[in-house]
Amino acid sequence: MSPFEYLLVFAAVVLGLAISDLAMSLNKLLNAGPRVQWGVLTPLAAMVAFLKIITQWWTWYAAQSIAQALSFEMFVVVMIGSVLLFLMAASALPDVEMEAATIDLPACYTRVQRRFWILFTTHWAIMNGVSIWAQIQIQGAQLNLLSFGYLVPFATLGLAYLRMPWLHAASMAGLIVLYLVQFLGDHLTA
């Protein structure tokens, strides 16, 4: 096992736990059946978290070329990013209390909205920062200051504080489409 594979497996364990948490929470919601008051924002948040986890792993796998530049402190930052992604995924769906009379998903989203988007933004900033840091170490990365990617933290922080359900639904739908097409046609290489 190469050093890169060794580190990837360790970080992937945290992502696997995040997907497990999403799956278990979804299972509990489905088991609660008619006691669940459904809304669109909570399932969209869970889908955004799920796809963010998948694309994060795919990005790591595709980053084999910059893995040589990964130092211990960079790996600590990657692991912090993984934990933030786990926390974001864990906040997307509520922990269902089996004795609860009803589970109000719109109210759950409203309650975790700020945490979800702050975790999203922090994860984005940390992972982009460590990527740039690693690229600078091996190839002197060229930063494009006019990139639309730099608007992401401002937009997602806005979602943390704005209470406009239609804007949240549109933003999450846009992120879902972005995550689905981001690696369209890519293949894992050996």
Q: Uncertain regions: pLDDT < 50 for 5+ in a row? A: none
How is the biggest beta sheet arranged?
A: 2 strands, parallel
> What is the count of DSSP helices, taking H or I runs of 4+ residues?
6
Shape: globular
Q: Going across the major beta sheet, what is the strand order?
A: 1-2
First CA to last CA: what distance?
Answer: 13 Å
Radius of gyration: 18 Å
Kindly report the average pLDDT value.
87
Helix content: over 70%
* Number of E-state strands: 2
User: Secondary-structure element sequence?
Assistant: HEHHEHHH
Structural class: mainly alpha
* Percent in strands: under 5%
Describe the 3D structure:
The protein is an all-alpha fold and 190 residues long. The protein is globular. It has a two-stranded parallel ribbon with strand order 1-2. Helix 1 runs parallel beside helix 3 (72-92). It is built from six helices and two strands, in the order αβααβααα. The protein is 72% helix and 2% strand. The longest helix is centred in the middle third of the chain and has 35 residues, at 105-139. It has helices spanning 3-32, 41-62, 72-92, 105-139, 152-161, 165-182; strands at residues 36-37, 103-104.
